[in-house]
Amino acid sequence: MENNTQTKPSLIMVIALMTLVNGIFNIIWGIAIIVGTVGLSLLCFPVPLFPIVLGGFEIAYAIKLLATPPQPAQPSQAIAIWEIVAIFVGNVFSLIVGILALIFYNDVTVRDYFAQLNGTQTPPPTPAAPVPALPVDPTPEPPAPAPVEPETPEKPKRRPRKVA
After folding, report:
1. Does residue 149 sit in helix, strand or coil?
2. Sign of dihedral through CA atoms 63, 65, 66, 70?
3. Residue 139 per-residue DSSP state
4. Of all helices (H) and strands (E), which one includes residue 99?
5. Helix (H), strand (E) at residue 47
6. Where are the beta strands (DSSP E) in 54-109?
7. How far apart are the first and last CA of the chain?
8. Which residues, 6 or more positions from 35, have their beta carbon under 8 angstroms from its beta carbon?
9. Nearest-CA neighbor of 91 among 129, 122, 149, 52?
10. How far apart are CA 79 and CA 14, in angstroms?
């Protein structure tokens, strides 16, 4: 049994907590849309359903990131993009969380953490084998001849006209 004593990078914790809070907020937001538009909610049922479903996915993903010991997980750029899309149901907070999550996923420490967590850590590059030096000829090379420019023929000179 492998003992993983590595601590999570702070950005992973920030992503997890932002996603968890945003998931809870999205569920509340979806319920608020249903309650606020009692008559219209039957006509626009998919609109409040979107933040509720997204909130469920966000909470599940955040719990996976916060688990101890860590569970294998990939950076969920899809959830971050759907958080940005939530602006269409009026959720500005979700837009901000989605943008920050995408920015944090591109951080080197976050990428390395996910790679190590999933066992896809790439080994450090091996140095290339030294290339043997070519023997140096002690005689210098003669200078290359200067390029010769082609001569352009001169235009014939005009003779002055005779005035009659």
Report:
1. coil
2. positive
3. S
4. helix 92-105
5. helix 46-66
6. none
7. 117
8. none
9. 52
10. 15
Per-residue pLDDT of 31-86, as tens digits, reads 888 777 765 655 666 777 889 999 999 999 999 999 888 888 889 899 999 999 99
Instruction: Compute the chain's Rg from CA coordinates.
Output: 34
pLDDT tens digit sequence for 133-145 = 666 666 766 777 7
| Identity of the amino acid at 30 | G
Distance from C-alpha of 72 to C-alpha of 86, rounded to nearest angstrom: 27
Task: Dig out the tokens for 11 from the structure.
Answer: 């950005």
| CA–CA distance, 115 with 61 (Å, rounded to integer) | 17
In the chain, DSSP assigns E strands to none
Specify the DSSP class assigned to residue 121.
P
Distance CA 83, CA 19 (A): 9
Distance of alpha carbon 113 from alpha carbon 74, whole angstroms: 10
SS3 of residue 77 by DSSP = helix
At position 160, the amino acid (one-letter code) is P
pTM exceeds cut of 0.85: no
C-alpha to C-alpha distance for 137 and 61, rounded to whole angstroms: 66
**Omega before 160 within 30 of 0, i.e. cis:** no
